[in-house]
Amino acid sequence: MLIVNQTIFPNPATSVTQAETPATAVSERRMRWLEVVVVMSVAFLTPLLGSIHALIVKRTTPAIVSQYGFTLGSFMLLPPLLTLMYVLWRNGRTFRDIGLRWSWKDVGVGVMLAIVALLTSGVGGLLLRLALTAAGMGEAVHASVDTIRHTWTRSMLLMPGGAAYMTIVPFYEEILVRAYLMTELIDLTGSTALAVAVSTLLQASYHLYYGWIGAAAIVFTFLPWALFFAAKRRALPCVTAHWLYDLIALLAKR
């Protein structure tokens, strides 16, 4: 029997595998980064540009406030979700793998998370207003508060399209900017803090139609949800909290 020293004469198949594995890993990592950019662009580039335009022209109400606008807006949320489904499928994953699992317990946690967001947004918003007022920007603060107060109206709840839109948006945002984006950033960079910061700032950025101060204030709403997801990797509480927060904010408008 001829025994070949593998150190001197390595198995070609083994050598190829060892040589290709690092390259394959790098290629897959680059692909995941590209997929993050594609999914986030498809999902949020248009809202971001529209929000920046609204900030520049000082338009305080989104253009979709109508039955037709809400219905069209609901359907326009589907392509980004389908894009995300394809990206997850390509990697052998589903929504469950990024934290979306049904659980009544998570719904209950979402209720508590909504209460936490109401508290942090109230306290954070108050501190921000006090700081800006002390800096001589009181008029800008009041203008921003009025903008947020009148952006949506209770009438949207009476529109089938409006009610559907308000139900879909929390799922859309939390799955994309929270569950998917944070999962990928944590896996790719190893930094939970970076994932929390990017997720929160991106979410605030396409709310610039509230004005700079309004967009800064809304960070205090999104931050608890980002911190919760970073700690627990469970998306349903964030979706529930977002939906409940929006409903309370809408019903509280005068």
Class of secondary structure makeup: mainly alpha
What Rg do the Cα atoms give? 23 Å
Number of strands: 0
- Uncertain runs with pLDDT below 50, 5 residues or more? 1-9, 12-19
User: Could you say which overall geometry the principal axes of the C-alpha atoms support?
Assistant: globular
Largest sheet: none
Question: Would you kindly provide a written description of the structure presented here, covering whatever features stand out?
Answer:
- The protein is mostly helical.
- The chain has helices at 12-57, 67-76, 78-90, 104-134, 138-151, 160-189, 192-205, 212-232, 236-251.
- The chain has one domain (28-251).
- The chain is built from nine helices and no strands.
- It starts with 11 loop residues before the first helix and ends with a helix.
- The model is unreliable at 1-9 and 12-19 (pLDDT under 50).
